[in-house]
Design a protein that fits this description.
The structure is a homodimer. By secondary structure, the first copy, chain A, is an alpha+beta fold. Helix content of chain A is 18%, strand content 40%. Chain A has two domains: 18-54, no CATH class; 56-200, Alpha-Beta Complex (Nucleoside Triphosphate Pyrophosphohydrolase). In chain A, a hairpin with a 4-residue loop joins strand 2 (18-27) and strand 3.
Chain lengths: 205, 205
Amino acid sequence: MKVDKVEPCVIADPDGWTTLRSDTVFSSTYVSVDEVNVRTPSQPERELSWTVVRRKSAVAVAAMTGDGKLVMVEQERVAPRRALTEFPAGQIDDVDNRFEPDVILATLQAELREEVGYEIAEDAEVVSLGYYFTSQGFTDEHIYLFFVSKVVPLSTGNAPDASESILGTRLIEPATLKQMVASNEVNDSLTLALYARLTARSILF
Amino acid sequence: MKVDKVEPCVIADPDGWTTLRSDTVFSSTYVSVDEVNVRTPSQPERELSWTVVRRKSAVAVAAMTGDGKLVMVEQERVAPRRALTEFPAGQIDDVDNRFEPDVILATLQAELREEVGYEIAEDAEVVSLGYYFTSQGFTDEHIYLFFVSKVVPLSTGNAPDASESILGTRLIEPATLKQMVASNEVNDSLTLALYARLTARSILF
């Protein structure tokens, strides 16, 4: 298996940014809400106040079977109250080591096994496609994106998390995915972001 | 101006879904956090518990100048602590009328004027590209996507909201955008989602 170097996404004050205040006003297992005041490079004399929802970073992967199909997952999603067809994805639970490429890769492998029942083939390439921010206006959440050139099904099938509601694995032709993106049938950010990176890099057409 | 019909994104219990409980545990001007219990079609005997962050829906637009450039905005973003180059976007503030196509279109026009200083040309087509969910695992936030075939600059320039931190308008060649998507220079969900829909529909290449 050939694995690209992963560039971790570190969220901290770069040159010209100063966090003056960051107060957590709500916190649960899944999210926290922080009220922050910052100074930014463009107007260093001004304090900008903002509400930031913090959430773990995550990994999403477009993986291809030996016969050129993309492995996707159909899943009931509570927030939008509907079932969506998405690329497999999951959060990086080892928060202390979240910048370690090995931890990011282990999350990718776990999601392939658990959500869709596949593993990376020995002769596969794992291509890092960067990351993206899910909603830059209000959350620090970001998702690392990958392409895996070859995966093989596990004899044991998938083993979804009982707290989620995974309906099944779908094998999708790239041309069908293109139609699903065009027609609004695919309408979640991680699948659209992966599709954008894959086509911009001419991995998919 | 020729305007496509917009399909509103209604979030409610479809057939087989039942919301048993929805308690708001945090609320501010910008977000609320709800603890919900639902029954879903796949396992109607089970209660699924979830934390949902609610936020206004929004509009994002890829608009093209008369000479074929895309109008983008460079903006300091507090949550990821960096300046991003994005397509113009903004929230639908008229919440009571958020499903009205006219209200959605008015938001699009306001964002073009205020964020980047452009207006829709009289002979333009406004193409509806559906919508997407920014982070289906935790929020109901969704963004309507549009392509405007021709915009013209306002003589008065832009008029950004003082509570934001807009650095300026950038006119980007489609080929340059493709490189920016490929290289991780564009890394926000709304720009990637628009790029995905535009390429899948062969509006951009």
